[in-house]
Design brief:
Helix content is 19%, strand content 26%. It has 460 residues and is of the alpha/beta class. It folds into two domains: 12-235, Spore Coat Polysaccharide Biosynthesis Protein SpsA, Chain A; 242-433, 3 Solenoid (UDP N-Acetylglucosamine Acyltransferase, domain 1). The strands form six sheets. Strands 12, 14, 15, 17, 18, 20, 21, 23, 25, 28 and 31 form an eleven-stranded parallel sheet that branches. The chain has a ten-stranded parallel sheet with strand order 11-13-16-19-22-24-26-29-32-34, with helices on one face. It has a six-stranded mixed sheet with strand order 4-1-5-9-6-10. A hairpin with a 5-residue loop joins strand 7 (154-157) and strand 8.
């Protein structure tokens, strides 16, 4: 099955690796009480996307620098250490907060940002490979060329292509602002000199902050080489606003769609299909337009998912058919060849192979046996205001249209429930249960009714 997870890679140079993720910014432009890096991307907080990418490098330790009053963020990234940057004094100051957590680490230190969630493992591997290149650079910076360099720091290169310095846009002269190679913030640093360089940082700049970018000039002043690696601009989008988050979501969805297509699924109209970070899609599955996959969905091979269906926390076995307009909620397992049809909602239910729930039904907290048929308008009455109870429908059972099964209740294998019945007691295997009032017919009653109504209608 196709899925979105990335396997681990061998580290370039075989050096020990520590990852420091800067996540202390509240993100005032997000206008949210939620820390910026906890806003969701493809169904999970973006900080977890960053950590998954970093984890694929098999780091020896990962440290997340958080801001004050962010206990929810610290809990989210457990068990990683979370030193606190109590004052927002710049990116260099933020990395300094990781000193104790890094301890005596002397390998590579890869510095990432919690609000830059689109980086790939390949790009970070290239950065680490450059760190162990022939020139042995003390600092490797990840650069990119955005359409609008704007407020990004500029990377100033020597004639030989090595990195000379990084100049923040606010401190740059017009000539420097003409440079289109920009700083992403991501860098790999030789751990043996990281804090020696950080301790030399000053804040004589337009913002009065301790810039991490000054490490480049400091390293060169110490006689060490520095280097730059370029990456595609769409990997380095920083999320600072809701608009940025929407752009990042669009990029991530395009990646997930591409992965599904390359894995052997058909997306009839890819732009209208929305995936979660962990969606798994089998080969020869066809996904129609306007389908949404929430988190925790696994789809087998040869499945048809018809338009306007919504699936979350669901497993669908090979050859099943879902929708259109179906809603499958968490805890649902749909067996091979089963059918879940128009305007059907399934929640926390086991639908076994070949079973059919085809029209306008709600099946919750239930077990539907193999080959059973649940008629249109059927509901399982699973909640009594206090507890939720189980409905069991046996293999090959037939539930007539517009029936209500009041849980806890069991309909045996091969049993039939007559249309319009309310079932409150167990039905034995192969039995027929019908609960409805006797039909009464009054001769000419309809005719007399119409005559009475016409006589009583106001005139004029």
């Amino acid at each position: 099955m196709n899925h979105t997870e990335t396997g681990t890679r061998d580290r370039p140079g075989g050096a020990a690796l520590a990852v420091v993720v800067l996540a202390a910014g509240q993100g005032t432009r997000m206008r949210s009480a939620l820390p910026k890096v906890m806003h969701p991307l493809a169904g999970r907080p973006m900080i977890l996307q960053v950590l998954q990418t970093a984890n694929a490098l098999s780091p020896d330790r990962t440290i997340v620098v958080v801001g004050p009053n962010m206990p929810s963020l610290a809990d989210l990234v457990t068990p990683h250490p979370t030193p606190v940057q109590t004052e927002q004094l710049g990116t260099g100051h933020a990395v300094l907060q990781a000193r104790d957590a890094l301890g005596n680490h002397s390998g590579d230190v890869l510095i990432l940002f919690g609000d830059t969630p689109l980086l790939t493992v390949d790009t970070l591997t290239a950065v680490l490979a450059a760190r162990h290149g022939p020139a042995d650079p003390a600092v490797v910076v990840l650069g990119f060329r955005p359409d609008d360099p704007g407020a990004y720091g500029r990377l100033v290169l020597a004639e030989d292509g090595s990195l000379v310095k990084i100049v923040e846009a606010r401190d740059a002269d017009p000539e420097t602002l003409d440079i289109d190679l920009c700083n992403s913030g991501v860098m790999a640093v030789d751990g043996t000199v990281l804090f020696e360089l950080l301790d030399q940082l000053g804040n004589a700049n337009a913002k009065g902050e301790y810039y991490l970018t000054d490490l480049v000039a400091l390293a060169r002043a110490a006689g060490r080489n520095t280097a730059v690696v370029e990456a595609p601009a769409d990997e380095l989008l920083g999320v600072n606003s809701r608009a940025d988050l929407a752009i990042a979501e669009a990029v991530m969805q395009d990646r997930l769609r591409a992965a599904a297509l390359s894995g052997g699924a058909t997306l009839v109209d890819p732009k209208t299909v929305w995936f979660s970070h962990d969606t798994r899609i089998g080969q020869d599955t066809i996904v129609s337009p306007n389908v949404v996959f929430g988190s925790g969905v696994t789809i087998g091979d040869g499945v048809d998912v018809l338009p306007f269906s919504h699936l979350e926390g669901v497993t669908v076995a090979d050859g099943a058919r879902i929708g259109p307009y179906a809603r499958l909620r968490p805890g649902t397992n749909v067996g091979a060849g089963a059918r879940i049809g128009n305007f059907v909602e399934i929640k926390a239910a086991e639908i076994e192979a070949g079973a059919k729930v085809n029209h306008l039904s709600y099946v919750g907290d239930a077990h539907v046996g193999a080959g059973a048929n649940v008629g249109a308008g059927t509901i399982t009455c699973n909640y009594d205001g206090f507890t939720k109870s189980l409905t069991e429908i046996g293999a090959g059972a037939f539930i007539g249209s517009n029936s209500a099964l009041v849980a806890p209740v069991k309909v045996g294998d091969g049993a039939i429930v007559g249309a319009g019945s309310t079932i409150t007691r167990d039905v034995e295997a192969d039995a027929m249960a019908v609960t409805r009032a006797d039909q009464k017919s009054v001769a000419s009653g309809a005719k007399r009714f119409r005559e009475r109504r016409r006589k009583s209608r106001p005139t004029g």
